[in-house]
Design goal:
The chain is an alpha/beta fold. The chain is about 35% helix and about 25% strand. Strands 1, 2, 3, 4, 5, 6, 7, 9, 10, 11, 12, 14, 15 and 16 form a 14-stranded mixed β-sheet that branches. Strands 8-13 form a two-stranded parallel ribbon. Helix 2 crosses helix 3 and helix 6 runs parallel beside helix 7. It is globular, with a radius of gyration of 18 Å. It starts with a strand and ends with a strand.
């Protein structure tokens, strides 16, 4: 059986399973529609630390511990960690996971990093390079605002197109057996530049990459939208969702009936003032772990296409006047029930 599918996809002959997962979030996320589903909600976004960056590291460390605990595994049982965040040189990851002394692949795919980590982790397990691995990502509203936009203390006005960076970390233990959901395939995204220069409109920057990825997944696997119970993007929000539906429909597919977006699901935009919705590496990770994955594990959802999306900008590229290109990574998750 060939495992290479079409132009950008893989179908695993022996599908790795998601043994366990865990979600850790901040106070605002805990007050949202999914608040009761998260494993841990901290009453303070500082998580007992002195800086926003250290707080994000603390979230990653806690999420990894919870996920390993659920899987009845210790750090010595984990062959590799595939992890990343939004901060320069992925410092939330390196400082957060350092004490575990597990071989680490540090990743950066912006807000798509959860999909990248799950994809590489699944490839590793499927190839026999590790019995158990962890995929983990995080983001923090305050650390992201300080790095990419304005310090929170500036109290700047946010446009309606802006998304709210989720304070959260999601971790997934992948292995050969022991879980109720399996990763049967992946579709790896490319970088798409749609000419967007507005750093406050990430949905518009990422939607073209998500559309390209989803359509390529259909072509590579010979599937239609209805072959998935849900197609779940990561961080497009309300603005990006509308663009996504239009771009996909132009390719002859209608995903409006079974599409969901983690950035829309995690917040109540009217009650919580989150404009277009949520974003950040932690957005798709905690929403998958707490909300969608349990439905796959129970059999309520048979097959989903999970597509975290990322805006590939930095302080340097933005200050140099570059566009904001986007990317996306697709993970096919099916029930074992």
């Amino acid at each position: 059986m060939t495992q290479q599918m079409g132009k950008q996809s893989l179908q695993f002959e022996k599908a790795p399973v998601i043994v366990s997962s865990a979600s850790v979030t901040g106070k605002k996320e805990g007050e949202g529609p999914l608040g009761q589903s998260f494993d841990m909600v901290c009453s303070s976004d500082k998580f007992g630390e002195d800086s926003w960056e250290a707080s994000e590291s603390a979230m990653q460390k806690e999420a990894a511990a919870l996920a390993m605990g659920k899987a009845s595994k210790s750090p010595k049982d984990i062959r590799y960690v595939f992890a990343g965040d939004l901060l320069g040189q992925t410092i939330a990851t390196s400082f957060g996971l350092m004490d575990y002394e597990i071989p680490l692949f540090g990743l950066y795919g912006a807000c798509s990093t959860c999909g990248e980590a799950l994809s590489l982790g699944a490839m590793c397990v499927a190839a026999g390079y590790g019995d158990y691995v962890i995929a983990i990502t995080s983001s923090h509203f305050a650390s992201a605002e300080k790095q990419f936009r304005f310090p929170v203390e500036y109290a700047n006005q946010r446009p309606l197109s802006a998304t709210w960076t989720v304070t959260g970390s999601g971790a997934f233990v992948l292995g050969k057996e022991g879980g109720k959901a399996k990763i049967t395939g992946i579709t790896t995204g490319i970088i798409i530049d749609y000419g967007i220069r507005d750093s406050m409109n990430m949905g518009a920057a990422m939607a073209p990459a998500a559309a390209k990825l989803i359509v390529q997944n259909f072509k590579d696997f010979g599937r239609q939208p209805q072959d998935y119970d849900l197609i779940i993007t990561g961080d497009l929000g309300y603005v990006g969702q509308e663009i996504l539906w239009k771009l996909v429909s132009e390719q002859g597919y209608d995903i409006s009936r079974n599409h969901r977006d983690c950035g829309i699901e995690i917040f109540d935009k009217e009650a919580q003032g989150t404009q277009s919705g949520g974003s950040g590496c932690g957005c798709s990770a905690v929403t998958l772990s707490a909300h969608f994955l349990p439905q796959v594990e129970s059999g309520a959802l048979k097959r989903i296409l999970f597509v975290p999306t990322g805006a590939m900008l930095s302080q340097v590229s933005f200050n140099e006047g570059q566009n904001v290109p986007g990317t996306a990574h697709g993970v096919v998750i099916e029930t074992c029930v």
